[in-house]
Amino acid sequence: MMYDISIQNNFGGVTMTREEAVVCIHKLNYIYLSLNKCMIDDWEKIVQLGGLTYPQSKLLIILRENGECTMSMIAEKGLWHMSTVTELVNRMDKEGYVEKQIDQMDKRVVRVRITQKGIDVLDSTKRLYYKNSDVFNALLNMDKKDLDNSFDIIVKVCKNIKHVTGPCPLSDYMEKIENPTCNCLEIMNSVYRE
Questions:
Q1: Which 3 state secondary structure label does DSSP give 3?
Q2: Rounded CA gap, 72 and 148, in Å?
Q3: Is residue 5's pLDDT more than 50?
Q4: pLDDT for the residue numbered 160
Q5: Contact between residue 55 and residue 88 where contact means Cβ atoms under 8 Å apart
Q6: Does the pLDDT of residue 79 top 80, yes or no?
Q7: How confident is the model at residue 52 (pLDDT cuts 50, 70, 90)?
Q8: Which residues contact 48 (CB under 8 A, 6 or more apart)?
Q9: For all residues of the chain together, what is the average pLDDT?
Q10: Cβ neighbours of residue 3 closer than 8 Å, sequence gap 6 or more
Q11: Does residue 3 have a pLDDT over 50?
Q12: Sign (positive/negative) of CA torsion 74, 172, 153, 14?
């Protein structure tokens, strides 16, 4: 049974019932999991064409976007356990995609940077992505205004969950990403000039 309780919320709208909120939690969770799976499956398909695994490509992206990182920074940004990072970095170092260096000030700290070989394979993988990605091609067929409205709603949901009334890291990131600092636009344009 749904209870029709209309209460003003902090954003000037009308809140939903508890039952509607439960249904929304399930919908948000399913949308998140489904979209995440679509994106990861698509990227995994592409990185395999380029000779990498998903975690290897993710590590290279982290290093390319952030420069030299400590192992703990990589774990934080990749949402990995330290043991996973250690194994991944050691394997990538042996393959020549990254280089490890002991910090001169604190010998317990290992710093990792991407090599030219790592940059080359990552850029090659990005080219494959723009040629073969189901996600990229699906977005080309969607209405940008609809997507922007969806992004705005997701940011609003996150801010409401975190009780944020002003700018937040997610909304700041959404503004920043409008002008990417990575080389993705350059690579995508080069693919379509070929």
A1: coil
A2: 34
A3: no
A4: 86
A5: yes
A6: yes
A7: very high
A8: none
A9: 89
A10: 17, 18, 19
A11: no
A12: positive
Mean pLDDT for the stretch of residues 144-166: 89
Asked if residues 67 and 74 have their Cβ atoms less than 8 Å apart, the reply is no
User: What is the pLDDT averaged over residues 42-71?
Assistant: 94
Q: How many CB atoms lie within 10 A of CB 28?
A: 13
DSSP tag of 168: -
What is the separation of C-alpha 77 from the centre of its chain, rounded to a whole number of angstroms? 10
Give the pair of three-digit tokens for residue 108: 């317990």
- Tell me the C-alpha distance between 169 and 84, whole Å: 27
* pLDDT(12) > 60: no
Q: Tokens representing 112?
A: 């990792």
What is the spatial distance between Cα 51 and Cα 41, in angstroms, rounded to a whole number? 15
What are residue 55's phi and psi, to 5 degrees?
Answer: -60, -35
DSSP classification of residue 183: S
Residue 31 has pLDDT above 60, yes or no: yes
Read off the amino acid at residue 93.
D
- Put the strands of the sheet holding 110-114 in their side by side order: 69-70, 110-114, 98-102
In angstroms, what CA-CA distances link 65 with 58, 60, 62, 82, 102?
A: 11, 8, 5, 20, 21
The residue ranges of DSSP E strands in the chain, in sequence order, are: 69-70, 98-102, 110-114
